[in-house]
Amino acid sequence: LAKTTQPISMDSYEGQEVNITCSHNNIATNDYITWYQQFPSQGPRFIIQGYKTKVTNEVASLFIPADRKSSTLSLPRVSLSDTAVYYCLVQPYGNNRLAFGKGNQVVVIP
Amino acid sequence: EAGVTQFPSHSVIEKGQTVTLRCDPISGHDNLYWYRRVMGKEIKFLLHFVKESKQDESGMPNNRFLAERTGGTYSTLKVQPAELEDSGVYFCASSQDGEPYTEAFFGQGTRLTVV
């Protein structure tokens, strides 16, 4: 499984757009990029998944450049409740096994 | 619709004792996974059931861990005998079949403390 690298932590003010980056230099052709969010004392929760270009849902947007060696999760206008650890994962096609890295602790401050 | 539920939420046992964790997946989800995070480490895969069959148990740390999913519904993870290094949070997740990937729904986890 391709390894992912994320910043350890970041702070953001409430109401701002937050962009969380992830590096996955060894991503394979049939790998998908998936992001999960984890609040304290809870299990991870699926946010978004993509293969290339841009994917948007009601929670976030995922930007993947043409070389797919990195991706950016964008959270619009964060609130205090968006404080969580955000995990970027690379998954082979059809493989549901998740390989979590250290994640990125995002703290939203008022 | 009920999500993935795990029981107990927290268990404290002495070294050498036995503990059984339970996971009830979302109804209709054939795939069930166990993960765990030990102190200071990343969340690690333990095993994957498809219905009642073990699809992948490569993440199980040793033979003190036994997972079952009788009838393809709920699953149990037994640790016998428990050791200090087994302390951590054990997560269960379930998902439907689908390609290329289906979202995994996680429970809130069971925090196991071995003293």
Quick summary:
The complex is a heterodimer of chains A (110) and B (115). By secondary structure, chain A is mainly β. Chain A has no helices and nine strands.
Would you mind describing this structure in some detail?
The complex is a heterodimer of chains A (110) and B (115). Chain A contains no helices and nine strands. Chain A has 110 residues and is mainly beta. In chain A, the strands form two sheets. Chain A has a five-stranded mixed beta sheet, with no helix packed on it. Chain A has a four-stranded antiparallel beta sheet with strand order 2-7-6-5, with no helix packed on it. Chain A is globular. The model of chain A has no long low-confidence stretch (mean pLDDT 94). With 115 residues, chain B is an all-beta fold. Chain B is 0% helix and 49% strand. Chain B is built from no helices and eleven strands. Chain B has strands at 5-7, 10-13, 19-24, 31-38, 44-50, 53-56, 65-68, 75-79, 88-95, 105-106, 110-114. In chain B, strands 2, 4, 5, 6, 9, 10 and 11 form a seven-stranded mixed beta sheet that branches. Chain B is globular, with a radius of gyration of 13 Å. Chain B starts with a strand and ends with a strand.
Which key terms come to mind for this protein?
heterodimer; A: 110 residues; mainly beta; 5-stranded mixed β-sheet; 4-stranded antiparallel β-sheet; B: 115 residues; 7-stranded mixed β-sheet; 0% helix; 49% strand; globular
